[in-house]
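Quick one, tokens below:
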């Protein structure tokens, strides 16, 4: 980010929140402790005032600068292909769950460009990189647990590499949401144990943690836990 943006972020820093972020976002470095709503408001302001030029400099120092960069990409008033170009450049920079998840949730242009973005995501489905895996799973969770995509989503999630913690958790989270919204389509993927034991059990635990699943159904799912 340019020096003016960085200075504004430094002024908005909160030590107490920085300590909290450090405790819940392993691997994140140089945390200023700026709360997400503040960053989102600032990202929208930057897009309004600077547009794409805000992304020209890539010498990010702070955790919040990286998160802000992802938000700016999501808020850009640009055509879908241009946003995907910026997304392709940003994905390799993701190194923690918070940047990943905030970025995905901001890419709402996906709603009007589902097929285009779906095709874009396929390059990451078989990745061996933890946060590319998580990016894929969270994007599917956020935008593709729908009636017209549920079968494709389940098949894609089955292919995502879950040998690392944050990718496994994201796939489990997505699978649980698939089960909650489309139980008939999702049950075979759980009962036939298509996933590794940890991801399988995490999926069931997330299902059982949901208030949207009936107690009797939770008891049935618990029987499928891998001991």
């Amino acid at each position: 980010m340019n020096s003016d943006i960085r200075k504004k972020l430094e002024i908005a820093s909160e030590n107490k929140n920085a300590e909290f972020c450090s405790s819940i976002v392993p691997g994140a470095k140089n945390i200023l402790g700026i709360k997400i709503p503040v960053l989102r408001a600032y990202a929208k302001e930057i897009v309004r005032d600077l547009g794409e030029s805000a992304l020209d400099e890539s010498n990010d120092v702070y955790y919040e600068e990286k998160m802000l960069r992802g938000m700016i990409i999501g808020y850009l008033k640009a055509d879908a292909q241009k946003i995907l170009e910026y997304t392709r450049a940003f994905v390799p920079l993701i190194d923690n769950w918070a940047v990943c998840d905030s970025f995905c949730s901001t890419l709402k242009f996906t709603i009007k460009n589902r097929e285009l973005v779906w095709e874009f995501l396929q390059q990451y489905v078989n990745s061996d990189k933890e946060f590319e895996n998580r990016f894929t799973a969270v994007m599917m969770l956020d935008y593709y647990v729908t009636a017209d995509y549920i079968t494709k989503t389940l098949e894609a999630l089955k292919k995502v590499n879950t040998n690392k913690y944050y990718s496994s958790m994201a796939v489990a989270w997505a699978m649980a949401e698939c089960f909650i919204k489309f139980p008939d389509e999702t049950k075979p993927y759980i009962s036939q144990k298509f996933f590794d034991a940890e991801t399988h059990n995490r999926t069931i635990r997330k299902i059982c943690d949901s208030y949207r699943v009936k107690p009797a159904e939770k008891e049935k799912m618990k029987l499928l836990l891998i001991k």
